[in-house]
Amino acid sequence: MSGTRLRIREIQTFERPMRFARPFRFGLVTVDEAPQAFLRVVVEVEGAGTATGVTAEMMMPKWFDKNPAKSPQDTIADLKASVGEAARHYAQAQDWDTAFGHHVRGFSAQKAWAADRGLPGLVASFGPALVDKAVADALLKALKLSFPEGLRHNVFGIDARQTPDLDEGRIRSFLSGVQPVGDVLLRHTVGLLDSLDGAGGLEDEIRLANLRLFKIKIGGDIDADIPRLAAIHDLLSRHVPDYRATLDANEQYDPQRLRVLIQAMSGGTLRAFREHLLYIEQPFDRAGTFAAFLGDLGGEIPFIIDEADGDYDAFPRAVELGYRGVSSKACKGFYKSILNAVRVSVLNEARPGQFFVSAEDLTCQAGLGIQQDTALVATLGLTHAERNGHHYVEGFGPASDAEAARFAAAHPDLYRRQGERIGLAFERGSLPTASLMSAPGFASGAEPEWSSLVQLSQQHL
Asked: 11-41, pLDDT tens digit by residue?
């Protein structure tokens, strides 16, 4: 079975406000709420009838686009426009094609639309990423296949049109051999505003969630970052002696300040911390990432791109400059994550173990968002992921208890009731993936209460 054809019959877009239990700082901006986008797509699958697919994704301000001239609300409006435009592009395609074929055409139109308006690649990708997930969910439901099964048979029709550097035979070989992991360990994000001790601090989180892996945000201020990292190491080494950590600079560093930070890890204040460090994520702003080689900065510590991953050519361009990894985020497009994983498998043939895809997404919320992103990274064989949206939104947020109960019934290993709320079962320090991988569809299993959502405001630019 390869490349099943389908027609897109209908795309509906919705949103729901999500207020945070605590503020979070993205780069230079602090946010305490953001809307979540929801999509419902009806497709007609050749030889299998019609099916409905669903997905959800947070619309975080000032991450997809950090243009200082734009307000947080401006950037959310751009994301809503991206979703609306993608829905229009995909819905206009009346002919039969594979899911990936629809993606190739829709993504091309979306990039042209974004370029005309001066929008960055991450904003352009956001709308197609949601439509593609919902289409995949519908296709798999129609064919009665789980996500890993669909990939092994390549029912999506994934080929090399977006990645001419890859041989199509290598793509097919990679897909046919995917082996999901049974559990994905939580990598807990330590935000710039998060306290280390006291009620609700890092010490509490370690105890409550049996944490062993951490993602630590750094803000580009050396005088603040170095002593803060030393304090975090002191706490972690006492409570989790074998901990592992990653650093996320969120585009806030430059080569000179990064060199000072690495020197502190080489023989200074942070030497002990260096032994626990896995990699550093996105040190420079997305444009500056491609302006110069990493050189000796990337000699011992692996570096990965995240915000700089705006299009399919970003990862190979970064590799040429000394980067060794790229993040997987469903909000950037699950096809890109898969094809970057194929690239990693090819690169590691020449330099075994040197290149990797990481799993990064702080904001995945209970329900469709966390389920589909976790299924994606688990299917790619990734053993840990940044996964603590539950740290910022309690349970299912404003969703009704009936909606939360439907998701908990579909995935009883993933959720639990605590008091009056249903929420993510994070106490084990890992997320089991069995239920995400066994049912037909893209790890959905239930749907939101559509009557509780509002139509996504179609703010075209």
From this structure: 999 999 999 988 887 767 788 999 999 999 9
Burial class (CB in 10 A: 0-12, 13-18, 19+), 118: exposed
Give the chain's domains with CATH numbers.
5-173 (3.30.390.10), 183-454 (3.20.20.120)
Closest CA to 19 of 5, 8, 30, 35: 35
**Cβ contacts of 58 within 8 Å, gap of 6 or more:** 18, 34, 35, 36, 37, 331, 363, 364, 365, 369, 389
Give the single-character DSSP code of 391. G
Residue 189 parent element (H or E): strand 183-190
Six token digits for residue 273: 């911390």
Determine the 3-state secondary structure of 11 from DSSP: strand
- β-pairing verdict for 213-217 and 183-190: parallel
Model pLDDT, residue 340: 98
pLDDT tens digit sequence for 367-418? 999 999 999 999 999 999 999 888 889 999 999 999 999 999 999 999 999 8
Q: What is the mean pLDDT of the chain?
A: 95
Instruction: Evaluate if pTM is beyond 0.85.
Output: yes
With DSSP H G I counted as helix, E B as strand and the rest as coil, what are the percentages for the chain, rounded to 5? 40, 20, 35
Rama region for 94: left / alpha / beta (φ>0; ψ in -120 to 50; rest): alpha
Rounded to an integer, the average pLDDT of 440-456 is 97
**Angstrom distance (rounded) from CA 417 to CA 403:** 13
- The answer to whether residues 452 and 399 touch, using CB atoms and an 8 Å cutoff, is yes
Q: Count other C-beta atoms under 10 Å from residue 221's C-beta.
A: 13
The structure tokens 């497709």 sit at 43
Place of tokens 């959720």: 415
The whole-angstrom separation of Cα 147 and Cα 379 is 8
Burial level of 255, CB count in 10 A (0-12/13-18/19+)? middle
Task: Tell me if 88 sits within 8 A of 80, measured CB to CB.
Answer: no
